[in-house]
Amino acid sequence: MAQAFPFSAIVGQDEMKLAILAAAVDPRIGGVLVFGDRGTGKSTAVRALAALLPPMRALVGCRYACDPADRSAHCDDCATLKGKARPKTHLVPVPVVDLPLGATEDRVVGALDLERALTQGVKAFEPGLLARAHRGFLYIDEVNLLEDHLVDLLIDVAASGENVVEREGLSVRHPARFVLVGSGNPEEGELRPQLLDRFGLAVEVRTPTELAQRVLVVRRRDAFERDPEAFTAEWHAEDERVRKRIVAARKHLNDVRVDDAALERAAQLCMALGTDGLRGELTLMRAARALAALDGDAAVADEHLQRAAKPALRHRLRRDPLDDTDAGARVERALQQVFAT
Amino acid sequence: MNDAPAAAAAWADAVWAATLCAVDPHGLGGIALRANAGPVRDQWTAVLRSLFDAQTPWRRMPSHIGDERMLGGLDLAATLQAGRPVAQRGLLAECDGGVLLLPMAERLSAATAARLAQVLDRGEIGAEREGVAGNWPCRIGIVAFDEGRDDDPALPQALADRLAFHCDLHTLGWGHVGDAAHRAADIQAARARLPRVSVPEPIAQALCATALRMGVPSLRVSLLALRAARAAAALQGRLEVEEEDARLAARLVLAPRATVAPPPSEEPAEPPPPPEDESAQAPPSQDETQALEDRLIEATQAALPAGLLAALLNGEAARSAGRVGALSGSPRSGRPVGSRAGLPRGGARLNLIDTLRAAAPWQRLRAASAPPGRQRVHVRGSDLRIARLQQRAATATLFVIDASGSSALHRLAEAKGAVNLLLAECYVRRDQVGVIAFRGRAAEVLLPPTRSLVRAKRSLAELPGGGGTPLAAGLQAALGMAAQVRRAGAVPVVVLLTDGRANIALDGGPGRARAEADALQMGRLLRGAGLSALVVDTSPQPSAAAQKLAQAMDAPYRTLPHAGAVELSAAVRALPRPAH
């Protein structure tokens, strides 16, 4: 893979960067959807994340890179290892898997191992992209152009954390817990509401209209293209800081206190916006906690809720076709109401 | 274009675009060339070809290419022969380091355009298909030939945004063309120089500011302009971009994309904010940058076609053309429903397990007759099975809205509301929608079939009311759009919102009797075409005319006052959809 643009060198787009970091700290937040104008660095940010994530510990020889610490989520192969006291482990990079457009279903879910079927006549399972994305990120560029049956499949797996393959005479199930990251342009077509709701956070990116910022973007991109190595080295220290922040936040995450007052605030906010179901509140709490952890704060404060509200709630508002107001503005309005008291 | 200097300038610019593109094909993405097939385009292509080495890959890609051939996949013949999966490079990978020509690029589906865009962004192809995973380098420049007429859809935006140059040669005659000003050797020298060319701060700033003032929001375009300027400097043998290069870049990259007319020069332009002190360089003096920016804008202005500029000055934003809806009825997608004997050609997918199953009974026989070797499984062509796929045919709901003054005016808002509610339904089902409005003398296609709720909403919000009721024209437009939808492989459903009181005949003449006769005639044509339709009466009291029309169309009839959104959407859902 070609060298990625350094994450910390991305100009502006703070909401997008924050959402991606929050999802990296707490995968339970459930994915990020980045929607917006062309040429705003949507894919750049996601691909940059891959280079930023600290490596994870995995069982040696496991095709799904099972987590040695979490026995409940082991695949069938690793579950049989239970007897052994200390299975071997090693550090592997966190997978950030790109789902290319035009990928066929068999490569996504996994299929019969062609080579072994053809040469030995053996029926064996060859894991697909979902298996490779286990414990990492699955990135779909132009998510709104993805074929419908693939979208259905991804929704199902992302929700259940398990990939069930029943095809070509195979019957296999394996864990597939990944953070779904999608990006797209609304002009190309909308996402179905069912899919929209599966993403924990949704951010909208706009082309910056301020000249100085635009010049900066163009110049940095130009510098990167002329000499990727030197540019990456220049930003290495900054990227390292972000990485440390993620590591610290992950450790700290479970110690962050969530007071009743904060819960109440979150509930008020969701009520004021009339979001359906509890998913909105849950995601808002988790995102606010991840932000608090990133800031190194001991408890979730109003300020974290305020920052988390827009990405956590904007895609869950009941769609009122007669009200053309931007969803972000509606969240903003509700924030002012709730926090004014 | 009879205007000789303008034609000569257009040709010269197209040659410049070809030259700069040859210096940095992948960095600049390529060229979108609007020209019909013919000697002018052939000459331009020959000029472009002469700028590259003889061994540079040079491929044409038909717009109906399948994923397998485009991205790569399993090479079936080699796989069977070798007894192990053999991956095959696709057309794009074969083209690495060269130029890809796209004839009839305006017909590209959004999905194909998105694949090309991904390749341009990443410089490599990641294919995950049919049992093989491959990664091939793919640094290409794309030349997209847009052969569209005025009302045809334009290039898919995702692709157009990534191609640095947009040239227009479709009005040029043979008398206007010339030869290349550079040779392949010059280009080689420029390529070697390119990585060392630097861009001074004021130039970068001026290019960005110009883009902003011309109403070109995409940052990618600003970056492309900067790269074009660098390529120009490299070509001139300079190691630093100068104003001349920036002017050329602005003219070639920014001018064709302008959406607002730059403010007239006598009006003091908004001073750019002082640059952030990002680099150690001292910020250039404001006046100097301003002057440079003005000169760049001047350069772009000269390149704007006269008619366009006038239209821009009138405040008419250039209407972005629609695009041929993404083809969804292809044999390549859908859910598998069994298999049949056949060769996996033309995008059909091999069903491996059934193929092996078909080969299984013959193994012992074939092994006995085959030459001894390490081949374990003997598969013959007659064993091959391909998957049969079935896909839910997409529906396109076409709204035909009466925006006339007769009685709809005061109910137009309600009609819009009803359509909006139906739109939300359409999106849950992933239907496409199209919007046609009729008022005054004619009908207008407000929105070609699309899945974008954003665009549908916008087109509705902008819909004015008033004028006569050319009902027949509206129905005729619906008929045309329905035919278009069918060609794209979807099933059209027409929802007509009107009070039925037609008073403009099909030929644009007034007269209630004639107009109503025409409308009924068109209604019968719609029925004859086998279109499912729904008539929603928007008049305050049920109108006899609308009922009669519904009868002629053999369509269910609903009245707006009584039909709530829920009932309307149920009615649309209940419409019969002919199997397709």
How would you describe the overall organization of this protein?
By secondary structure, chain A is an alpha/beta fold. Chain A has 15 helices and 11 strands. Chain A has 2 domains: about 5-55 and about 95-210, 3-Layer(aba) Sandwich (Rossmann fold); about 255-340, Magnesium chelatase subunit I, C-Terminal domain (Helicase, Ruva Protein, domain 3, Orthogonal Bundle), CATH 1.10.8. In chain A, the strands form 4 sheets. In chain A, strands 4-7-10-1-11 form a 5-stranded parallel β-sheet. Chain A has a two-stranded antiparallel sheet with strand order 2-3. A two-stranded antiparallel sheet of chain A has the order 5-6. Chain B is flat and about 75 Å long. In chain B, the strands form 5 sheets. In chain B, strands 14-13-12-15-16-17 form a 6-stranded mixed β-sheet, sandwiched between helices. A 5-stranded parallel β-sheet of chain B has the order 2-5-8-1-9. In chain B, helix 9 crosses helix 11 (about 220-235) and helix 19 (about 470-485) packs parallel to helix 20 (about 510-530). Mean pLDDT of chain B is about 75; it is low at about 265-285 and about 305-330. Chain B folds into 4 domains: about 5-180, Rossmann fold (3-Layer(aba) Sandwich); about 200-260 and about 285-315, Orthogonal Bundle (Helicase, Ruva Protein, domain 3); about 335-370 and about 375-390, no CATH class; about 395-575, von Willebrand factor, type A domain (Rossmann fold, 3-Layer(aba) Sandwich), CATH 3.40.50. With about 575 residues, chain B is an alpha/beta fold.
Mean pLDDT of chain B: 75
The residue ranges of chain B in which pLDDT falls below 50 over 5 or more consecutive positions are 264-284, 304-331
The low-pLDDT segments of chain A are none
Q: Going by CATH, what is the homologous superfamily of the largest domain in chain A?
A: P-loop containing nucleotide triphosphate hydrolases
| CATH-defined topology of the largest domain in chain B | Rossmann fold
Strand order in the largest sheet of chain A: 4-7-10-1-11
CATH topology of the largest domain in chain A: Rossmann fold
Supply the CATH architecture of the largest domain in chain A: 3-Layer(aba) Sandwich
Helix content of chain B: 40-55%
Domains of chain B (count): 4
SS strand fraction of chain B:
15-25%
